[in-house]
Design goal:
By secondary structure, the chain is α+β, with helices and mostly antiparallel strands. The chain has 3 helices and 2 strands; from the N terminus they run H-E-H-E-H. Helix 1 (28-38) packs across helix 2 (54-61).
Length: 81
Protein backbone atom coordinates (compact mmCIF):
# COMPACT_ATOMS: atom_id res chain seq x y z
CA UNK A 1 0.00 0.00 0.00
CA UNK A 2 1.22 3.51 -0.81
CA UNK A 3 0.03 6.78 0.62
CA UNK A 4 0.28 10.06 -1.23
CA UNK A 5 -0.32 13.62 -0.17
CA UNK A 6 -0.92 15.95 -3.05
CA UNK A 7 -0.97 19.73 -2.53
CA UNK A 8 -0.12 22.94 -4.30
CA UNK A 9 3.51 24.01 -4.12
CA UNK A 10 3.06 27.66 -3.18
CA UNK A 11 4.61 30.01 -0.66
CA UNK A 12 3.05 33.13 0.82
CA UNK A 13 6.27 35.11 1.11
CA UNK A 14 8.66 36.16 -1.61
CA UNK A 15 12.37 35.50 -1.41
CA UNK A 16 14.84 38.32 -1.96
CA UNK A 17 16.52 38.27 -5.38
CA UNK A 18 19.82 36.92 -4.01
CA UNK A 19 18.10 33.72 -2.82
CA UNK A 20 15.81 32.99 -5.78
CA UNK A 21 18.29 30.61 -7.45
CA UNK A 22 18.40 28.58 -4.21
CA UNK A 23 14.66 28.29 -3.52
CA UNK A 24 14.38 24.87 -1.87
CA UNK A 25 11.46 25.71 0.42
CA UNK A 26 8.66 23.30 1.24
CA UNK A 27 5.27 24.74 0.37
CA UNK A 28 3.24 26.42 3.09
CA UNK A 29 0.48 23.84 2.64
CA UNK A 30 2.80 20.89 3.39
CA UNK A 31 4.10 22.55 6.55
CA UNK A 32 0.54 23.44 7.59
CA UNK A 33 -0.63 19.85 7.04
CA UNK A 34 2.07 18.32 9.25
CA UNK A 35 1.77 20.98 11.96
CA UNK A 36 -1.99 20.42 12.03
CA UNK A 37 -1.48 16.66 12.34
CA UNK A 38 1.20 16.81 15.04
CA UNK A 39 0.66 19.98 17.13
CA UNK A 40 -2.04 22.00 18.81
CA UNK A 41 -2.55 25.73 19.18
CA UNK A 42 0.00 27.30 21.57
CA UNK A 43 2.42 24.34 21.17
CA UNK A 44 6.09 25.11 20.63
CA UNK A 45 7.38 24.23 17.16
CA UNK A 46 11.18 23.89 16.99
CA UNK A 47 12.76 24.03 13.54
CA UNK A 48 16.44 23.07 13.75
CA UNK A 49 17.15 24.17 10.17
CA UNK A 50 15.07 27.32 9.63
CA UNK A 51 16.21 27.85 6.04
CA UNK A 52 14.03 30.63 4.65
CA UNK A 53 11.55 30.63 7.57
CA UNK A 54 8.55 28.81 6.08
CA UNK A 55 7.89 26.70 9.18
CA UNK A 56 8.26 29.74 11.44
CA UNK A 57 5.78 31.79 9.42
CA UNK A 58 3.21 29.00 9.09
CA UNK A 59 3.49 28.11 12.78
CA UNK A 60 2.83 31.73 13.78
CA UNK A 61 -0.23 31.95 11.53
CA UNK A 62 -1.53 28.70 13.07
CA UNK A 63 -1.14 30.02 16.63
CA UNK A 64 1.95 27.99 17.49
CA UNK A 65 5.10 29.35 19.15
CA UNK A 66 7.99 28.92 16.71
CA UNK A 67 11.61 28.52 17.79
CA UNK A 68 14.37 27.97 15.28
CA UNK A 69 18.05 27.83 14.49
CA UNK A 70 19.78 28.57 11.20
CA UNK A 71 23.49 28.22 10.51
CA UNK A 72 23.57 30.43 7.39
CA UNK A 73 23.81 34.02 8.63
CA UNK A 74 22.39 35.52 5.42
CA UNK A 75 19.31 33.33 5.63
CA UNK A 76 18.88 34.20 9.30
CA UNK A 77 18.96 37.90 8.48
CA UNK A 78 16.33 37.33 5.78
CA UNK A 79 14.02 35.59 8.25
CA UNK A 80 14.32 38.40 10.81
CA UNK A 81 13.62 41.17 8.33
Amino acid sequence: MRTYIQMENTNTHELPVEFQDDDVRYSDSIVEYFLCESTQEKDIVFDTFAGFGTTILVAEVMGRKPLSREFDEERSENIVS
